## 1
Amino acid sequence: MIDATPRRLLLLEQYADGEDARHVSLRIEQPRASDRAVLPGQFFMLTLPGVGEAPFTYISLPDAQGHFSALVRRTGRLTQALFEQPAGAILGYRGPFGRGWPLFFSDNRVLLVAGGCGLAPLAGVIDNASRHQLPAQLSVIYGARHAAAQVLGRERARWRQTLRFIETCDQAVPGQRQGSPLEHFAELFATQPPEVLLCCGPEPLMLASAEACLQRGIAADKIWLSLERRMHCADGLCGHCYLGSSYVCQEGPTYRYDRYLQLVGNSSPLAIAQHYRFC
Ligand SMILES: Cc1cc2nc3c(=O)[nH]c(=O)nc-3n(C[C@H](O)[C@H](O)[C@H](O)COP(=O)(O)OP(=O)(O)OC[C@H]3O[C@@H](n4cnc5c(N)ncnc54)[C@H](O)[C@@H]3O)c2cc1C
Ligand code: FES
């Protein structure tokens, strides 16, 4: 069924969480069963009346009362207007949309690579793993340009207690590892190498991570990426989000890497990564 009419969404509170980013607490006024079945990695459309609509991912998933949270980075008109809204403002919600991450791994060692705000779609996977101790070994490597750009401060403090959580900064910061997450792969693969990769962040980082994992023996069907494309309808109608013959809003945003390679055809992932890097 096409979900085209926004439902009422209450803005509960928002606080600064990284440079130009806010952690936003929300409540769907009349939650449905489908809201309780959201998977980490799926997304919703947030409407600001009189301004517009844009896709965002869930940080915490909707509970029985419809409470959930999101991380919003200020990029343009809608996000700027959202930052100016007071607690209690009525917004609009459509969703959930798309497909989430695979959550039940037959493999024990799973590596998550996140860059910048790309940590947000992986938050639910990390929380799920911390709660249920599955998979047996989950390692996270999170890269940001500099310390102020790191997001999900409260969640990271919690995750550091229970998981192997490595943080890197492009610029030298005392107490932090320097360089991109890729520069630390050798260490991650030195003993008990990961068997599965989930990755979200800038496309060059995701494609380079996928290729580095392929070279180190992880099969393409054990590598997953979350793609970001322009979206309008979120329901397979407008065609704004095409990746080859696939609608990212329906088949994605998470794609298995062998499927991604099939969709991009002859374009080399590293050439695509290179292209993005210089855009
Ligand atoms: C599935 C999905 C999940 C997302 N989850 C989050 C999230 O959890 N948190 C978050 O902060 N943002 C998320 N985004 C991105 C967010 O939807 C956009 O940044 C949105 O356009 C912001 O609206 P705006 O009016 O403030 O900015 P706009 O005026 O729409 O855009 C500002 C700038 O960003 C560029 N831009 C916008 N969207 C895209 C895109 N998809 N690809 C490339 N460039 C783009 C525009 O060209 C423009 O330069 C997600 C996007 C997708 C597709
Ligand atoms: S956003 Fe309209 S078809 Fe995907």
## 2
Amino acid sequence: MPKIAMIWGVSGGIGRAVAQELQANGWTVIGIGRHPEDAAHNCNYLFTADVAREYDVQTAVHAASFEVDQINLWIYAAGDIKTTAVVDFDLASWQRILDANLTGPFLTTKHSLPLLADDAHLVYLGAVSERLKLPKFSAYVAAKAGLEAFVGSLQKELRGKKITLVRPGAVATSFWDKLPIRLPKDAAPPEKVAKRILAAYDTGHSGQLDLV
Ligand SMILES: NC(=O)c1ccc[n+]([C@@H]2O[C@H](COP(=O)([O-])OP(=O)(O)OC[C@H]3O[C@@H](n4cnc5c(N)ncnc54)[C@H](OP(=O)(O)O)[C@@H]3O)[C@@H](O)[C@H]2O)c1
């Protein structure tokens, strides 16, 4: 039986690469995002959702439950960033960054849990938060540090499941278009992150996975 993966944020650089890697390895892939059609070639099923809208999230999981019995590998690859000094940060932008990096993981986890296999593996894309306590990174670093705490607590709640918090260094995706700094020359291709995620599943990894 093919294994089944669900990817949130599937149209992003890392999300798409993970979908591609999984499909190449025989997985059935459910891709969810605001523009899932961008990953259509690498997904068996596509659903549209904003991860911060509870109704969208519930509807996407409900629709997926008509297509598959259970999820073996669940990946949260959505995220957003804005770098602005606190004094200039508007509330709507702050909320958007917290939504994509912290509230989204909560809502998508909460509503996906009933569809996850007992021994399912959950993977969250975090960041090396302790290195990102930089000027203008307040919203992003607060959200990613919050995600680490969320995942740490969840690990103790979901004893039968594996949970991996992936913390990549720089990855060459359009995420960097939102930053006022250049992509480092040694940035990893998203395909490398995708292979590490599949290897984490294959080896039953659980805990923090730093890719720096
Ligand atoms: N690239 C890096 O160097 C790097 C390093 C460390 C960690 N990460 C983390 O890795 C993850 C993936 O990053 P990436 O490089 O693949 O970035 P990306 O190419 O910008 O992809 C991010 C994806 O998140 C989606 N997204 C944002 N807000 C959303 C929302 N409210 N609802 C649904 N989807 C939403 C975006 O959708 P739209 O296309 O609709 O905007 C996009 O598809 C992020 O969590 C990021 O923080 C990236």
## 3
Amino acid sequence: MTTDLRGLQPQHPSLFQLAADGESLDFLYARCPACGTLAFPADVPGCSHCGDPLRDAQRIARPGRGELLEYVTLHVPLLPGMEVPRVAADIQLEGGPIEEGVMAGTDESALRVGLPVRAVAVALPDGERFACRFVPHTGARA
Ligand SMILES: [Zn+2]
């Protein structure tokens, strides 16, 4: 069963978009025009480094890759409609910021702190959008 994700819209268009391979996600950053720091997400109200309002910031798409910092399996929904169990993770993105993410699948045994991960698109049940999930990055692609 294959879903063509290219016809779907991102669940959070200000955060990520489908990469050229049709499976991976690129994250959207704003490059601060004053200090050059990458801000994430791109629509943050200001640069966390120098305070520039980022009004003229250039929007940059970078591969959604990072390193697993910590993770925990949730068995109780924290929000209405949240699917459980799910493995919630803190991920150090290559661009610098730490983001909360969700791992694909519910098996913690393949995970470890420091594991390289990448973001992929997963179709949502509504058939119209895709969400961001993280999977181990095996290094097959540069
Ligand atoms: Zn700045």
